[in-house]
Amino acid sequence: MRTPFLRSLAWAPTVALSWLWGLGFFYAIHVTLTYGWLGFIAFAVPNATGLFLFGWVLNSPRRNPAETIASFGGHYALLFLLCQIFAVSLTVFSFVSCLWVPLFGAHGGLVAALLVIVACALGHAATLGQLRLVHLALLPVGVGAGLLALWSLRAAPSVPPLPFAAFDARFLGLVVPTLVGFLLGPWMDVQQWQRVVEIRRTGASPGLAYGAGALIFLGLLTLNAALAAAVGTGHAVILSDGLPAAQGAVAAGIRAAGLDLAAIGFTLWATIAVVSTIDSSYAATRWLMTQITTRSTAPLMAFVPEGLVGSPLWIMLAAGGIAAAAVSNALPPIYLMIPFATLLVGAAACLVCTAFGSTLRHDALLNLMIGLAAAIIFLTGYVLPIPALMALAPLIGLIGALPMVRERLGGRGAALPEAVTPAAPVGTAVMPVSTAVAAVIPMRRDEGNVSHGFDGAWFVLRMTPTYDDTNSVGNIYFANYFRWVGKARELFFNICVPHFDLAKTDYYILTRSFTHDFRREAREFDPVTVRIRVAAHNRKFVTLEHEIHSDTHGLLGRGEQSLMFVDPQTYRPLDIPRVVLEGFFPYLPETSAYVARRRAAASAGPALGALG
């Protein structure tokens, strides 16, 4: 794809298919047959709108989804993993109970297991870019199969037209959960985060990709609604809660009419929807867990292989177990859909605020407990039915996000824990973390055209290139960008570890890897800003990320480097020296285990003193 426009549109099919899991594919049939065409519109439009808004919001240059995941992915890991477990389990459960069993009878579990294995293998072997091409090829096949089933249903006995609206108390109670769940749904789905990061990395537009993807997704839902209308009402079944469910009505209607061609088309269409969901789930979960495990400082990681901890197979096994239990107990599909409007919405709202730059105040355990209470309230309102309880449940689930929402809306959030003052070398001025991170250290001027200092956690080097920095063509020579990052790094170290003496040191700092993604070019006398900060660290390695900006042209490029520490005599790898951690302490990310330990020790200190 040569233009950003075409590159963006090429992502639309995989965006649409990755969002078409069990909730979208089969629930579109249920709402159409249960609540009429207006009920389908009330379900489909918020669903597609939430998908579009996710891409549109993260299309803004003021928000960096890659940085959000890198910095805060670990904080929201429980949200992402629970979302994948429920999504995959609902997809597998729906395929077995709403298609295979009504259409073919037994052995649905074996077929579903085979599909999951094939999808996981595809997600393991292919990159996201390759999955995009696979989904691009699968989409017309799936739509063609669905249209074949729709065309074949013409031979079925005629059915009365569906009503425009057939609302009841449960439908009214579902309005608020539908809006909350679908507007926040893409934010809790790590598949969509991986896509938007990759879309931006390739220079395409997430807003355009997700806009086109939402339209395709809306068309796919409409196809299933048309299939539902073609088979008509009368195929709903009563499940274990005593309530009717119509998710399997299309499969039951096809079997009742004895339409083999329709059965083949609908099965192929559903199979493509299942595979294109689970392969993406596997790939995205592995992508997230790989980032988390490689940056983890947990002692367990020294004994358990990273590949084992980060493997998505555990998620797939958990989802398969839930699906098997739901099928064996004839559980209504709505029970597996409840978490997306109750259990997970508090953490998802916190994640949205984090993406907008709010201070991290996400308490995963608190949000989980509030979400469980909201789920119980929703379930009570659904069974009785009491619409007010159903409408209230997702609002209760959002309570855990109120501090971050209030801050984002301009109110005062909850107070942060008191900052800890790190130990510092003798003769070094000490500043509390809250002050050091928030303050801008005055720029120090080195030469006539160079100055440097801290802006929050970022170390900033400002300079003006001259003809000395250009090549024979006239633009800045490419190697100078690397040299500027190196200069910024050395000045950063000089402030953080001011007493480092190369002749007396007991450690060397080596560059383990360095990457830089060029975006634009600068020219002479165009002021340039190099920004560098600590992105992550574990026991032995520190990852620094950098950005180079032009006052005239904006972002010139970004990248990262990995540092390691070795013995100056034997070059044996060392753990990060304590003096380095103490020097970096005011500028370490919130995800740092070292920061957490220092704060915990400081908070325990006053308490022990009071006891004494």
What does it look like?
The protein has 612 residues and is an alpha+beta fold. It contains 23 helices and ten strands. A hairpin with a 5-residue loop joins strand 1 and strand 2. The longest helix is centred in the first third of the chain and has 36 residues, at 22-57. The radius of gyration is 27 Å and the shape is elongated. The model is unreliable at 412-443 and 607-612 (pLDDT under 50). It holds the Pfam family 4HBT_2. The chain crosses the membrane at residues 9-29, 35-58, 78-103, 109-126, 133-151, 171-188, 208-232, 252-278, 299-328, 334-357, 364-382. This is YbgC/YbaW family acyl-CoA thioester hydrolase. Keywords: Hydrolase, Membrane, Transmembrane, Transmembrane helix.
The structure class reads alpha+beta
Question: What name is given to the CATH topology of the largest domain?
Answer: Sodium/glucose cotransporter
Helix count from the secondary structure assignment: 23
Fourth-level CATH superfamily of the largest domain: Sodium/glucose cotransporter
Roughly what is the average pLDDT, rounded to an integer? 86
Q: Helix fraction?
A: 55-70%
Taken from the alpha-carbon principal axes, the silhouette is elongated
